[in-house]
User: What shape does this take?
Amino acid sequence: MSETTPSRLRSLGFLRRLAPRLRPWRGRLVWSAVLIVLTSAISLVFPLVVRELLDAAFLAADAAAGTATLDRIALFLLGLFAVQAVLNFAQSYLTASVSEHVVAELRTDLFEGLVWQPPGFFAVRRVGELSSRIASDVGVLQQVLRFGIPELVRQALFLVGALILVTATNPRLTFVTLTAIPVAITVAWFFGRRVRRLSTGIQDTLAAAVARAEQVFTQIRTVQSFTREAWEAEAYAREIRATRDDGLRRGVARAGLTGAVTFTAFGAIVAVLWEGGRLVLAGQLSAGTLVAFLLYAVTIAGAITSLAGFWGNIQEAAGAARRIFELLEHPSELPVAEHPRRLPDPLEGVVRFEAVHFRYEDDQPEVLSGIDLVLEAGERVALVGPSGAGKSTLAALVSRFFDVGAGRVTVDGVDVREVEPGDLRSHVGLVPQEPMLFAGTVRENLLYGRLDAGAHEVEEAARRAYAHDFIESFPDGYDQRIGERGVTLSGGQRQRMAIARVFLKRPRILILDEASSSLDAESERFVQDALDQLMEGRTTLVIAHRLSTVIRADRIVVLDGGRIEDQGTHAELLDRSPVYARLYRRQFDDALASVAESPTEVHDV
Assistant: This one.
């Protein structure tokens, strides 16, 4: 986003950004504007009717004529206000319908833009803050579109119309009234800048607090296991207090704005009353005309006061719009080719890394340096190496969660950067170490693998993943609801559901990212049997710290320091790879120590 963007979004400037979203509803907006003009005109006619009423009543030749005139004017006013009520209803509905449509589209586009961003985008942003922008910031814009802008137009019409009518009524009194306007504009400008600045700070601080709360709730077991409830509560309270303090300062600024403008506007009314009273006493002005003029003066004062208040709302909306459009206009960190290529059909699944270099940030060291590796169709290749060697990063490049810094990654000879990400990822299945399940039913989570799968296919996938038996044991079976992130299930159950989900997807390329490293021996046996079925006939990249899970691979690739240290079978690497031999001995010694402590346990080493 350019440096000049914030200045363009100041005040009403953000409406230019919303204009393309408002254009489809211009018919409703035009009718809404017409209705605002009509209802404003009715309000502006009222003082003139009052003038006629008073002059006719008090200057009538006899009481009966005056009473008849009052009756006719009263009935006319009732009819006029009934028409105004109907018009106000129609205008309010039209404005509400436009704001609801625009805001729904804005939230949808925001979410869609975010969900297409790669994992690296979310690695440097707090998810709670992004959620706050979708909910809170868009909500601020909705209020301005639904109430602020229509009232801004209405009050502007009141101000201009009343000024024209008072000028036509008595130019001398009009001059007295106009003295309030320059003062009100100066006050609004001074306080409005501070309101905008404080509003932006409040939204940022509140977003940070929401992000912290979401993080705590999703990691509640960690928080409670370390007994950090009080610490987290105090940290959240500090951020809320900061929001409160900023809100109080904003309240002072807005109160100062409203108070100063109100005093200025209604001070002008006092001056009009004083000067008008003198003219009435001198016989230069009728009582009805003075009352009408006072009503117009009150209208002008109310319009000035309302415009000052709406100005504060506009400043808040400008700050919210800046944050929203920062996300909407954030370029994709994974650009899509102008004319994307399609992967071959059917796909063989040959994955090739050619002189691949990668680093997460320009100022950080390389994670991968000169990787040359080929995964043949249907081959099972295991990646091993110490923590930080680049195993998970290398696997992430297959799905193009990140782009290489140099070199290229190809699938069946096609550079993954030339393929639409959705097309590429539809052929890749991922079973992570910690499978993420959604709050919903078992069936809904399994169908995430393929939304159009039938009930028989879902059950068959669960059977092949050794998940059918424990699913059937639930009171509601496949319609059993599981908690957020699948917390009501054991680790092994979550993993088998993740495998069943991939069975439904039917990918040609499979990535197993330490899929059984955190499971107990019994769960690992079920998961490993399910994985063996899943890997059958698929090009598979297995990442594991536990070497027992990769010994059966067709080929083992040893990574160290972002480079391929060696590759071969288990027996070959034990003889010639110091890194592999060291990793194996370390786990072998750990396993023996565990057996010595718990001789009843069986460990596969």
